[in-house]
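haha ok so turns out i had the wrong file open the whole time. this is the CORRECT one, sorry everyone. sequence first:
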Amino acid sequence: MKARWDIFCSVVDNYGDIGVTWRLARQLVVEHGCDVRLWVDDLRAFERMCPDIDVQVGQQWQEGVQVRHWPAEWPGAHPADVVIAAFACQLPPEYMDRMAECERAPLWMNLDYLSAEDWVVGCHRLPSVKYKGVQKYFFFPGFRPGTGGLLREAGLLERRRAFQQDAAAQQRFLQSLGVAPTAGARLMSLFAYENDGLAGWLDVLAADGRGTHLLVPEGRILGDVQRWLGVNSLSAGDIQVRGALTVQVIAFVRQEQYDRLLWCCEFNAVRGEDSFVRAQWAGRPLLWHIYRQDEDIHLDKLDAFLELYTAALSPAAKAAVVTLWQAWNADGDMAQSWKMLLEHWPEVSQHAENWCLEQGLQADLATALVQFYESWI
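then structure:
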């Protein structure tokens, strides 16, 4: 019989949480033959990346996954063989009691946040707390051997490489989004949280000797873009030109479309966790806007990734990448740091591809989870 999996997702930051769990649920079904229920407490956030969702229905099937609404009053359900609490969310008390009543307790895992910090390797797969005799385990995604790896569907890198080598396919895809890149311009994407440093970056792009066509999916950064442009509102389809910079707003798209958008661009600014990983699989230079945390502890996480990511770069190229990322996440000088990066563009571009291929040698996250379950039973 197929293993039954319950994945619980409490939507905290609109799209990152549900983005990761939705990808994971589908991969477990398609590639590993699992029976998956995805419990989501905010179906409206889910609807943005899966428009077929009916937010009024508490139980429905989407792409082979049973999607269940997780309301304030628990509807009741028998626990699965494997239970995943995504990003340390708290399971419903009634469900936890039912786990304790099972003749054979399920494998209960806390799928934690992605981090490159050294301590993650030592904590991966360690037992955590117990609840009435049911043991919970830590499971950490990561970039190093000894972690759970990254979400990566079978054949993803081969599909990406073929797409990037097919100019006609890229053109057709961009046309489907209403995008006709400015001739000779650098195509870039911007998906970020609110950021005071954006104005300085857009200033230098507008004054650059080479044009930039900037694609901005609808999201939280749009207000900052509007202020810089001096317009009252922006919506999908709008195009504004300032000097060498063309800004185009595009609609929020499905995950598969967003992947291809990243593959089309020469540079991608991304945020959170899901888009951060997908930008790495694009094999193109990127800029990560990490989710801000109290007392700036997120900067430790940022520095840990930068130390790992830039290890193979020359000292000058490493300094350029680190300076840009730190400026973007700590209100630094984006104009000067962007100019520094452009000076090392060929090396940084090749490094992005090398990093992608290196990470692709590790087991993917879904496979690592299945292997842990198989060894546990």
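The chain is about 40% helix and 20% strand.
again sry for the mixup
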